[in-house]
Predict the structure.
Amino acid sequence: MSHPESESLKVGFDGCLKLEFHGSKVTSDAGLLAYRDLDETLGLFDSSPTVFHDPRTGRNIQHDIPSLLRQSIYSRLAGYEDVNDAQRLSVDPAMRSVTGKKVERNAASPNTVGRFETEMLARTENLDGLTDLSGQWVTRAMRKTTHKRIIIDMDSSESPVHGEQEGSSYNGHFGCNCYHPLFCFNQFGDCEGAMLRPGNVHSADRWKELLDPIVKRYKNNNVRKYFRGDAAFAKPEIYEYLEYHGYLYAIRLPTNDVLQDRIRFLLTRLVGRPPKKPIVWHHDFMYQAASWNRPRRVVAKIEWHEGELFAKVGFIVTNMSARNEGVIHFYNGRGTAEQWIKEGKYALNWTRLSCKRFVSNQVRLALFVLAYNLGNFLRRLALPTKVKHWSLRSLLVKLIKIGAKVVRSSRYTTFQMAEVAVSKDVFAEILARISRLRS
C-alpha cells in the first residue's frame, strides 16, 4: 500500500505522534558533505573527465562522468551498494549536493547508474582508468601526509559468491565458492591497489601486475621503501624484484626441515617447571634454498608457552639490517592489512560481488576501493584526535548517518543537522582540518 508523501502515519502506543516522510526535504546522510569537502580539497575527481571515455553523444546528457562516478562512490560509502538504491538516493538532498547537482535537481536514476557501471565503466579503456584511479587518489593524499618511509603490505582475501558468477570457483583454503582478490595497502591504511581474480588461483598469482604500478609511483620518492607479505609471497622472484627496486622486505617463510635443523638447539624442551610467561628466543642465520640465486638472511622466532609440548616457530626472510627483534616487530605490523581488509568487508560490503559478468564485478570492486579510500582519507587527515580511533563502520553510523532537514532560501540551502553522536564542535573541527589541507 502506497501513501502520499504529505499523508501522516500514526503509531498505536501514542496517539499524539505523527510520522511524515519528506524524502526530498530531509536526509539521513548529511555527513557525506564533509567527505565532499575533502574530495574537493584533494582534487580527487579533477582527472575523471580525461581518464574516462564517454561514448554518449547528443545534447541530452544530464549527468556527466564526474557526477555519475561520485554517485557510485558516495552511495557505497554511505552503505548503499545496490544500483536499485539510486531510486531513493536520486531525490536525497545530500546525494544531490555531493554529486554536484542543485538540491532541487535529481541525481541519476537506477537505469542511468546501472548503464554507467555495467556498460560504460566496463569498457576496457575505462576499466583500466578506474583501476588506476585509486593510486592517483593515494598520491594526492600522500602529498598531505608527513612520512619518512613507505610500507607496502600485500595480502589476498576471499569474496564468497552464491550463484554462477563468471570466474568464481571453489577454493579449498577458504572452503567456499569465491573470488580471490589481491590487495596492497600502505602503512596509513590507504588501498594502493586491488585486483579481482578467479577463486582457484594461488594467493600470490599476478603479484607483479598489481605491484608494478605502485613501485613506479613511488620510484622518485626520496624515502625508504618496505614490503611485507605472508608465506604465500615467499618466492625468489619477489625477493629479486624488491631488491632490484631498492625495497627492504620481511616475508614469512614456510617451515621446512632445513630451517628447523638450523635452530634445533633452541627446540629442546626446558627442564623443570615452565614459567607462566612465554619464553621467546630469536636467532638469525644465512640460508639459501635451491631455487634462490644467493643466500639471504633468515630470522627465526621461537616461543615456549606454558602447557604446550612443542615450541611455536616462525621464520622471516629479510634484507633488513635491523636486530632480530626489530625485524619480527616490523613483520608483525603486517596484521593491520588484514584489519583493513575486514573494514572493507564489514563497513562497505566490498565482497558483495554479485554481478553475473566477471568484468562487472571488477568494476564493483574498483568502486568499493575508491569508496574505502575516501573514507580512510577523512579518517587519517581530518578526524579530531578524540575520535581518531573510529573505524570506518563507526564513521558510517555516527558521522555519515547524521539526519538533517533541508531549508532553502533564495541565496542559501541550509542543512539543519541533528546533534547526536557527532557534535557541532566535532564537525566544525573536521571542516577546519580539511580547510587547513588547502594551504
